Amino acid sequence: MNNASLRPLDGIRVLDLTVALSGPYATMVLGGMGAEVIRVEAPGGSDISRNNPPIATKDGLRFGENTENDLNLTTLGRARNKKSITLDLKSTRGRELLMQLAKECDVFVENMSEGATARLKVDYEEVRKANPRIIYASLKAMGEPSAWPTLKGMDIIVQALSGIMETTGPADGPPIRCGLPIGDMLAPQYLLQGILAALIYRGRTGEGQHVKVSMLDCLASWVAVEHFDVLGGQGYPVRSGNFLDRLIPFGVYQARNGYVAIVAFQGDWFKGLLEAIGRPELENDPRYSTRVERMNRAAEFNDIIQAWTRLHNCDDIVHALLDQRGVPCAKVRTPDEVLADPHLHASGALTRLAHPRYGDVNAVGCGLPIQFSASTAQFDQPTMELGTSNDDIYRGLLNLSPGEMSDLRSARVI
Are 34 and 9 in contact (CB under 8 A)? Predict the structure, then answer.
């Protein structure tokens, strides 16, 4: 039997109550790996990111306010491989329907603000009454309960609290925000690990459970990787900018037409670098011959390297170091260069965004950078418009009658 068309999570059904970036990204990955993801929003739409520009229209992308008939680029990118239903969770009937859906699902994912699930009576304790086998996954900004209960969990806020911002930038400059929403993107990776582990555990024991992840916990755990407490005690600055001087040469150097990253702390790499820059005698120079001595003179040694790199184009530097001498070296690419890389499109890491109504929206979306030898996985189903799956889910899955559907619409429950 050829299973190449099967996906790893075929047969798993997910109830998705997430908004913004972190939660929707996690459920999109589940959908890309084959899970049936049912995304729940309030009638009219409740995801706060729906109004973020740019907006996709039949005439192309535009910046400005969203309209009822258009989808923005954010939604087109993050709601792929999901079904879309509407449901008013503030109504009694809406909560009843949600619990009926929970009975039919394997996984329940939410990233509501602190206390919201309890107020709506859709927290883990309530949902597991409907389905004791459910994997209930919660993604919060600062945990629940949070030490900052009134603080909204935006990525920049979490970066600030985590300490990671203080590690980014030059030693004599201010802390710098990571250019990508690293907190929003890291937390769903851990949430996915937790969900998949809980599914395996349920397969062995039959028991569901509550999986909890916070953006702050995830980023703070990464800060601990570099042992800043120990390094600080030895006088090393927390912020090291474009250079990691305890592994010198290790950094980003200016070229004639851009920047290159060079790593040459190992013996053969170091020798190759010195040959390329025309300074082979420095290998035996007591000021630079050992790593400790190079660390003590990091600024002046980096200046020696940069005096050479500034004279040459990026491609010539990469050729002299990597191609000719095996020294790790790469050009610092722009986002546009990366998004146009045919190899990344071929691997599935990147993909063109398209929609049945808008066609090719002239933008690149993230792909699913996981490859399986015996199955497939990718974000290949375009974003559904709000409520498109109402009949499919309420009539097909919950067996509601046409009359019940009409009543729910009239009451604005769906």
Answer: yes
